[in-house]
Amino acid sequence: MATTDLIDLAIETSKKAYVPYSHFPIGAVLLAKGGQIFTGVNIENASFGLTNCGERTAIFKAVSEGVLDFEELIVYGETDKPISPCGACRQVMAEFFPQDLKVTLVAKNKSTVVMTVKELLPYSFTDLE
């Protein structure tokens, strides 16, 4: 699937976000190497610490299905500039993605910034070898 199609899917997915407190929907689309697609949205909770981001929702869905090989992550937010993942999402990306995995960040006008996991979290906490 082309990146532009994944961006459109991320925008459509964001409409399913559960955001009664922030009113700030996020849509994420994770493309696995086998072609499988996992979507995620942010899911808020009155106890804010229990809120989950769209990126982590998509990653956790994939991992819970036994999928661990990925090609690309798209993250859409209703922001003027391409959305920036939070630190927790960056650390989860570092856990499950290769350092060179393409992460496309998308704004509401569909402008993008393409980065790698390593660029998002250059000195990540990873398995100590």
From TrEMBL:
<keyword id="KW-0862">Zinc</keyword>
<protein>
    <recommendedName>
        <fullName>Cytidine deaminase</fullName>
        <ecNumber>3.5.4.5</ecNumber>
    </recommendedName>
</protein>
<dbReference type="InterPro" id="IPR050202">
    <property type="entry name" value="Cyt/Deoxycyt_deaminase"/>
</dbReference>
<dbReference type="Pfam" id="PF00383">
    <property type="entry name" value="dCMP_cyt_deam_1"/>
</dbReference>
<comment type="similarity">
    <text>Belongs to the cytidine and deoxycytidylate deaminase family.</text>
</comment>
<dbReference type="InterPro" id="IPR016192">
    <property type="entry name" value="APOBEC/CMP_deaminase_Zn-bd"/>
</dbReference>
<dbReference type="InterPro" id="IPR016193">
    <property type="entry name" value="Cytidine_deaminase-like"/>
</dbReference>
<keyword id="KW-0479">Metal-binding</keyword>
<feature type="domain" description="CMP/dCMP-type deaminase">
    <location>
        <begin position="1"/>
        <end position="128"/>
    </location>
</feature>
<keyword id="KW-0378">Hydrolase</keyword>
<comment type="function">
    <text>This enzyme scavenges exogenous and endogenous cytidine and 2'-deoxycytidine for UMP synthesis.</text>
</comment>
<dbReference type="InterPro" id="IPR002125">
    <property type="entry name" value="CMP_dCMP_dom"/>
</dbReference>
<dbReference type="InterPro" id="IPR006262">
    <property type="entry name" value="Cyt_deam_tetra"/>
</dbReference>
